[in-house]
């Protein structure tokens, strides 16, 4: 798609929209059953997710709108319900198709047909039973699927968009990443990233991590204290309190990160990371309730970054300044626009005849 747009002269593209469509498509291919007619509604789904993210944050800052009854009477409440309906219809279509297939074949035949093949996330939910032998309700499955689809594409899209932005700001780092990928793939007939390749991309990985530090997709998480917690100054956080933990603030703490506003991938060189506190860097949260999909997200970011830089150079669109916009996910106020440039002769790669595949299976 980007080759075609670049050929037509669309040199400047808004990254969040473009990358979100790609990560949603990747999620459907890797963890969910493919639904043939969802392509037409993907853009509607992305638009609804963006609107919900904005509406949720706006509601948090307006005390009167915390009352559900009042919220449903105002325009924001109408838009919220409409966007929720769009999201729920999208995920319901995914679940319904697989449920029909499962009902048609029967549980045992379905399990037999999946032997030796990847079991989708939806399969796990539809076949799951609790300790009493009861299957998950439609509401349970819908809730899990909505969470999986939102968190499985939107956060990754933010992380990828910001790393492309940071490498556009620092061409020397971008070129070093590109050379690393060219060296990795130089003896391969096809430009494909295999699972074992993911550990052979040290500098690209450092660039991704530094971008996640500087621009974490999720800027804060909340946790309820399960016991009294004594702080270093002697004060007590009482059991039952809900605490807001600022990931963005932690990642920009000058006591831990010297010159925190500077993009410096070498912070994550193994030698420079030895004495760093373990919770100084937590883009995927931490503890028992951390991100269940962080391995999948990192694998996807490495693959996408590698194949993108192999085929394109990304440059800043100086006419569109970038201003951070923290919502549920960290975005940019007026989008994040970058120029795509065809690679020069020394780094030119042929347009793919099919979607590049990465044999990096989803992992939690």
Task: Describe the protein in words.
Belongs to the cytochrome P450 family. With about 375 residues, the protein is mainly alpha-helical. The chain has one domain (about 1-220, about 250-345): Cytochrome p450 (Orthogonal Bundle), CATH 1.10.630.10. The protein is built from twelve helices and nine strands. A three-stranded antiparallel sheet has the order 1-9-6. The protein is globular.
Brief characterization of the structure:
The protein has helices spanning 2-7, 15-31, 42-60, 68-71, 75-105, 107-113, 121-127, 138-169, 171-185, 202-214, 247-251, 294-311, and strands spanning 12-14, 220-224, 229-230, 236-237, 242-246, 313-316, 324-326, 330-332, 337-341. The strands form 4 sheets. It has a 3-stranded antiparallel sheet. Strands 2-5 form a two-stranded antiparallel sheet. Strands 3-4 form a two-stranded antiparallel sheet.
Q: What key phrases describe this protein's structure?
A:
364 residues, mainly alpha, Cytochrome p450, three-stranded antiparallel β-sheet, two-stranded antiparallel sheet, disordered C terminus, oxidoreductase activity, acting on paired donors, with incorporation or reduction of molecular oxygen, monooxygenase activity
- Number of E-type strands: 9
Q: If you consult CATH, what is the topology?
A: Cytochrome p450
Distance between the terminal alpha carbons, to the nearest Å? Answer: 30 Å
Shape: globular
What is the CATH architecture assignment? Answer: Orthogonal Bundle
Could you give the order of the helices and strands?
HEHHHHHHHHHEEEEHHEEEE
How many structurally independent domains?
1
Q: In CATH, what is the homologous superfamily?
A: Cytochrome P450
Largest sheet: 3 strands, antiparallel
List the quaternary state of the chains.
single chain
Level-1 CATH class name: Mainly Alpha
**Cα Rg:** 22 Å
Q: Provide mean pLDDT, rounded.
A: 84
């Amino acid at each position: 798609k980007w080759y075609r747009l670049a050929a037509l002269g669309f040199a400047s593209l808004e990254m969040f929209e473009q990358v979100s469509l790609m990560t949603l498509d990747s999620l459907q291919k890797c963890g969910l059953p493919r639904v043939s007619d969802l392509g037409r509604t993907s853009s509607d789904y992305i638009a609804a997710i963006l609107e919900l993210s904005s509406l949720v944050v706006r509601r948090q800052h307006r005390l009167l709108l915390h009352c559900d009854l009042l919220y449903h009477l105002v325009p924001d409440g109408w838009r919220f319900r409409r966007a929720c309906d769009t999201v729920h219809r999208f995920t319901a279509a995914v679940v319904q198709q697989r449920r029909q297939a499962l009902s048609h074949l029967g549980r045992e035949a379905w399990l037999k047909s999946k032997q030796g093949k990847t079991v989708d996330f939806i399969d796990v939910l539809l076949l799951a039973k609790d300790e009493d032998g009861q299957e998950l309700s439609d509401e349970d499955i819908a809730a899990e699927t909505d969470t999986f689809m939102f968190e499985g594409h939107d956060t990754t899209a933010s992380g990828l968009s910001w790393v492309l932005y940071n490498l556009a700001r620092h061409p020397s780092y971008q070129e070093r990443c590109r050379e690393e990928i060219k060296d990795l793939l130089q003896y391969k007939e096809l430009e494909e990233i295999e699972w074992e390749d993911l550990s052979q991309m040290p500098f690209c990985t450092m660039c991704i991590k530094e971008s996640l530090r500087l621009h974490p997709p999720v800027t804060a998480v909340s946790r309820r204290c399960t016991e009294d917690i004594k702080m270093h100054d002697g004060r007590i956080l009482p059991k039952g309190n809900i605490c807001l933990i600022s990931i963005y603030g932690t990642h920009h703490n000058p006591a831990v990160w010297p010159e925190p506003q500077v993009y410096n991938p070498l912070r994550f060189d193994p030698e420079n990371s030895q004495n760093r506190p373990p919770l100084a860097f937590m883009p995927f949260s931490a503890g028992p309730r951390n991100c269940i999909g962080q391995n999948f997200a990192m694998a996807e970011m490495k693959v996408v970054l590698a194949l993108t830089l192999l085929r394109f150079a990304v440059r800043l669109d100086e006419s569109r300044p970038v201003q951070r916009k923290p919502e549920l996910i960290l975005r940019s106020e007026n989008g994040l626009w970058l120029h795509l440039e065809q690679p020069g002769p020394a780094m030119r790669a042929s347009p793919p005849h099919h979607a590049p595949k990465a044999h990096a299976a989803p992992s939690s």
